[in-house]
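## retry 2 of 3
previous attempt timed out at serialization; input unchanged, resubmitting
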Amino acid sequence: MELPQTANISIEIIGYVTSCFTEKFAVPRQPGLTPSASARLRMVPPFNRKEMVRGLETFSHIWVQFLFHAASAEGWKPTVRPPRLGGTARRGVWATRSPHRPNFIGLSAVRLVEVDVSEGVELVLGGIDLLDGTPVIDIKPYLPESDRMEGASDGWSAEPFAELVVQFSAEAADFCRTYEQSTGSPLCSLITEVLQTDPRPASQRNRREEFGMLLWDVNVRWRTEGDVCRVLYCERR
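## retry succeeded, writing output
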């Protein structure tokens, strides 16, 4: 059988994500792990026509197909080290959801909170694992009757995520309360959900130094000892 020649295909960017995750570190490994994580998908012309989302508001979840724009400069890899396996065992890239793929295409099922057509078209999303600035190439409604496969196997990923106990210092707790009152954003819940699944690279999990991450415009600092993660302080950038 003669293989077809490789062809270059042009893909249109239909919109961009504004996310609570403003840097790669601490972005959840899968959608749904952080229910409090939110984003807005702003559609760009000519894909921001109101009729293009007519009826979408009747669905609770959607598939978002996007580009791993922050990973493209690192190139793709034939094998990767999944964090769930401790960062030591290798699996083929096609057997993982690694961003280091030949075409850097990602797929996430996320909660559709609102379809906002007051100015152009924006989709409000929840339970996301999308980095701020992510280019989106397609969306589709999530259909439970066909997208959920009964009896599906989860392969090597059946190994559960390690869950940490998250504690807040008095200073960090006070900051979160004040921030939530002024912005309406669930900072405390988001920090807890992100840190529970231990966002540190596997190679750094034995280190007791202070770590940091950006959520919205907040720099969160924490330290982990054993299975306890203590949020030390937060500060606005």
